[in-house]
Every structure is written in C-alpha cells, then in structure tokens.
Amino acid sequence: MEYVPKILVDADACPVKAEIKQVAEQFQLEVIFVASFNHYSVNTNGENWIFVDTGKESADMRMMNIANKGDIIVTQDIGLASILLAKGTYVFSNRGELYREEEMSLMLDIRYRHAKERQQGKYSKGPKAMSDQDRSLFKDRITTFLQNK
Questions:
Q1: 141/11 Cα distance (integer angstroms)
Q2: Domain extents in the chain
Q3: Domain 7-148: which topology?
Q4: How far is CA 23 from CA 9, 17, 132, in A?
Q5: pLDDT tier at 22 (50, 70, 90 boundaries)?
Q6: What is the C-alpha separation between 57 and 18, in angstroms, rounded?
Q7: Is 83 exposed, middle or buried (0-12, 13-18, 19+ CB in 10 A)?
Q8: What pLDDT was estimated at residue 128?
Q9: How many CB atoms lie under 10 A from the CB of residue 35?
Q10: Which residues pair with 2 in a beta bridge?
Q11: What's the pLDDT band for 135 if we cut at 50, 70, 90?
C-alpha cells in the first residue's frame, strides 16, 4: 500500500491555517497542527491538534518525531526546515516557498548573521504582514505542488 502523506503545520505563528485546511480537504490529506500549550484552545473544530509544552524547541521536536518521508511541512523556521528536508519531507514557508536542501546552508548562514546583528543592536525589519494576495499565492503554490506530485 502506498504511503499517503500528511500535512504537518508549525502552528504557533502560522498565518495560513485556513488555506492549509482548504487544500487538505481538496486533496483529502490529514492535517496535524503542532503548537505549544500557550496556544491551547478547547475549540479545535474537529481538527487534529497536538499541543506540546512551552519549551523552546518542543514543537520542533514533536514535528521531527512524527514527520515521515513524503510528508508536507509548513513552517517559517529555517532550522526546522533543514532538519525535516533531510528526512525526505517537502517543506513550505508560510508564503508558499518550497525550501530546497541545496539552499539551506546559505539560508542558515543568513539567519545566523541576522541574529548576530540583532545582538549588536542592529535591528532589521521583520517580514512584511501577510496580505490576501500572499495567502492566495501560498494556496496556489501548495495546490500546484500537490497536483504535480
């Protein structure tokens, strides 16, 4: 029997949960949202949520433990993305960018340099706010990926 991938979502700060649910319904894929207890809600609307303790890497560790080759991951955490790519998963950013292993070294280096600059008091602007166009682009990209898979 062929493995049916699931969608794992690093849900603490994910702005495209609704779009992920729509795509999952369209392709009949299971979605698992992983978040810290800080984001706990009794109203999960029948969705599959896993809540973990509030430790720094708790959600990341849980995602690493339940991800399988072929699964689709949505995260904006580049460190987590690099680890999950090595497991043979497909990792998307919240903006629909499909991460690639060959880009990870450079992306991790840039993240490190930005962290050093912030420590030195050189603050850069964060990412721009998500627009409806960004949400639509995310949905289009992940839909196209699944159609071609």
A1: 19
A2: 7-148
A3: Rossmann fold (3.40.50)
A4: 13, 10, 16
A5: very high
A6: 24
A7: middle
A8: 78
A9: 21
A10: none
A11: very high
Alpha helical stretches, state H, the chain: 17-27, 58-66, 78-86, 101-119, 132-148
In degrees rounded to 5, what are phi and psi of residue 90? -110, 125
Residue 19, pLDDT score:
97
Report whether pLDDT(124) > 90: no
**What does the block give as tokens for 31?**
């979605």
| Per-residue pLDDT, 70 | 96
Q: Largest Cα–Cα distance of the chain, in whole Å?
A: 54
**Amino acid in the structure at residue 83:** I
pLDDT at 101: 77
